[in-house]
């Protein structure tokens, strides 16, 4: 079985560092793979190679997706991921600072699996990451 990894689309270097630090502090084994915008995210997914040993593509366990990124924002990327038969089953967790009800509804309409507002403090980030991992790796059944 391929090693589980998490694909993170985040343009802010400080937020990337905080996520890396949170995962390291908790001792999680998943590799974090970072892309900085929507174009890079889609390019990354389209370039995933087929694994002959497992007879499948090594897709991420889930995607943490920021909405407000350059080149192609999270909304556009979310729509493209969920319309593509190769990628639509990958859980996409919108992970953003935007907490507008219209925006939340729009993301769910576009196919988001979960919408999480980024926590403010580091301790809150640790708990949020624990909750997300616990749900997507232990609780949820993913085809």
From TrEMBL:
Keywords: Phosphoprotein. The keyword Glycoprotein does not apply. The modification 4-aspartylphosphate is found at residue 66. Transmembrane segments: none annotated. Signal peptide: none annotated. InterPro entries: CheY-like_superfamily, Sig_transdc_resp-reg_receiver, TCS_response_regulator. Residues 5-133 form the Response regulatory domain. PROSITE patterns: RESPONSE_REGULATORY (PS50110). One of its GO terms (biological process) is phosphorelay signal transduction system. It holds the Pfam family Response_reg. This is Response regulatory domain-containing protein. It comes from Flavihumibacter solisilvae.
């Amino acid at each position: 079985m391929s090693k589980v990894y998490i694909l993170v689309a985040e343009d802010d270097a400080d937020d990337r560092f905080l996520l890396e630090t949170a995962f390291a502090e908790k001792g999680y084994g998943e590799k974090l793979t970072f892309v900085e915008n929507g174009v890079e995210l889609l390019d990354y997914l389209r370039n995933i190679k087929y694994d002959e040993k497992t007879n499948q593509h090594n897709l991420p366990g889930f995607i943490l997706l920021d909405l407000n990124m350059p080149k192609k924002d999270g909304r556009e990327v979310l729509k493209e991921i969920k319309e593509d038969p190769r990628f639509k089953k990958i859980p996409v967790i919108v992970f953003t600072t935007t907490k507008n009800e219209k925006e939340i509804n729009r993301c769910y309409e576009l196919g988001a699996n979960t919408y999480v507002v980024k926590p403010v403090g580091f301790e809150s980030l640790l708990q949020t990451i624990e909750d997300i991992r616990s749900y997507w790796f232990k609780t949820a059944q993913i085809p």
